[in-house]
Amino acid sequence: MATDPHDHTPGTIARPEKGRWFVVNTLTGHELKAKQALESRAASLGLADRILEVLLPTDQVSTLRNGKKKIVAQKRYPGYLFVRCLLDEEAWAAIRYTPGISGFAGQGQRDRLPAPMTDAEVASMLASTMSSTKARPVDSYQAGEPVRVQTGPFAGFLGNVAEVYPDRLRVKVVLNVFGRDTLTELGFDEVRRP
Known about the structure:
Blueprint: E1 20-26, H1 31-44, E2 51-55, E3 58-65, E4 68-75, E5 80-85, H2 89-96, E6 101-104, H3 119-132, E7 146-149, E8 158-165, E9 170-177, E10 180-187, E11 191-192
Antiparallel strand pairs: 1-5, 1-6, 2-5, 3-4, 7-8, 7-11, 8-9, 9-10
């Protein structure tokens, strides 16, 4: 196997079938548009075999809008995309001149290709991306388990879990309100173990 020209560690073996990861700067707030534009550009220029993957890491967070709780994707690295590619002059130009992309992060001299991310940086980034998709384990709450409501009109009330919906991150809780059992559905983040 040949040595990867972008790998600055002496004696390492190239893995051209996997490509290397690079960080590119985007206009803040336009990361998704830049990602879509780059993927489209790679396909239209016939560079899909060199521009292999474009990643925009996000976390799922809950927000309160108009009194309703919504789960939304929040960008983990605003203003940046991660591109896995086999970088040569043609791929570099396609990436660099894609609308919404302002350049490669950490690029030094104009006549040199940018340095790829190290394996440790890639492993750290991908591990945090994978772990962020797990909001809570499936067995986070059990039917019959006591919980205390943390927010909303029932804040401070004690109740018991009636049903668990791990895919929606919600539970149905039986609360004693004015001497009557009341069933209410709450998010995992709205209840805690007492």
